[in-house]
Amino acid sequence: MAALIAENFRFLSLFFKSKDVMIFNGLVALGTVGSEELFSVVAFHCPCSPARNYIYGLAAIGVPALALFLIGVILNNHTWNVVAECHKRGTKNFSTAATFLLFGSIMGRAAVAPVTWSVISLLRGEAYICALSEFVRPSTLDKFPSEFGAEVLARFPCKDVPANLTKFRDEVTRRLRYESQLFGWLLIGIVAVLVFLMKCLKHCCSPLSYRQEAYWAQYRSNEDKLFRRTAEVHSRILAAKNVKQFFGFVALDKEEKELVQEFPVEGVQPSPQWNAITGVYIYRENKGFPLYSRLHKWAKGVEGNGPTPEGHEMLFLAS
């Protein structure tokens, strides 16, 4: 138990430190596997009662998957860029293709953890066996005693059955585990095909060459890192300035004193500037020169974000 908990904390630590999308998604999947194992050991206990098994078994698969999906949507920066875009500018700058790719990006990233949870649950089989054991038709079991029905079948996952039904319990468990694992492998195959098709569609629809798209991804990553780092320093210096104005002095450590001396902050950015660099970005070019982000476009003094006759449109998607 302690090892499982420690493993999950280790994965969470790596999860928040990782910047690469493939590593990021892999850590999400691995963390989900560990969480599902922990859930199975600690929390999953089939009620072994008619009508309750089905609800409990499906809930054990579906409810955590739904919760993980919603968490993935909430933690995705694209989600809040969409909210900001719709609030400030509406959907006038969204083409059908851009909208599809945008929501595909959000849903695809958010689906990593719930799909992993569902696959592991199906491959383990406990929840599926619990949910469907009572629905196995006794007529499909050779020489199954006629006096027993769904109530006894519902107890099969708990092994709480008469001795003369042990061989039937083993057969039912084996049959349902086969079905559960088959659905799990099919889900893996379907997801793999969908990911492949989405990657092909993304690159086929891109107006950029492969190398330029790789450069764009590096630019986005570097801009985000530098913006966050600079915003943290700017806000700290501004806060120090306001605190000093209120108290007459401000208690700074050595590093903060150096920051205040090196980067004097005279004012704050007006709201129109923040609005200009916030929201969904539709890739465009201005007179043949690429504009890689809203910040880049603002710095160049280019107005608007919609597609133009001389430009190309491509949604800002994480690779």
UniProtKB/TrEMBL annotation:
PANTHER family attached to this UniProt entry: CALCIUM HOMEOSTASIS MODULATOR PROTEIN, CALCIUM HOMEOSTASIS MODULATOR PROTEIN 2
GO cellular component, one term: plasma membrane
Ion transport found in the keyword field: yes
UniProt-listed GO biological process terms: ATP export; calcium ion import; positive regulation of apoptotic process; regulation of microglial cell activation; regulation of synaptic plasticity
GO MF, one annotated term: monoatomic cation channel activity
Protein location: Membrane
Family membership noted in the UniProt record: Belongs to the CALHM family.
Pfam families linked: Ca_hom_mod (PF14798)
Keyword terms, alphabetized: Ion channel, Ion transport, Membrane, Transmembrane, Transmembrane helix, Transport
Transmembrane segments: 21-42, 54-75, 96-117, 182-201
Keyword Transmembrane helix: yes
UniProt name for this protein: Calcium homeostasis modulator family member 2
Gene transcribed to yield this protein: CALHM2
InterPro entries named in the record: CALHM (IPR029569)
Species this chain originates from: Meleagris gallopavo
Main localization (coarse): membrane
Membrane topology: Multi-pass membrane protein
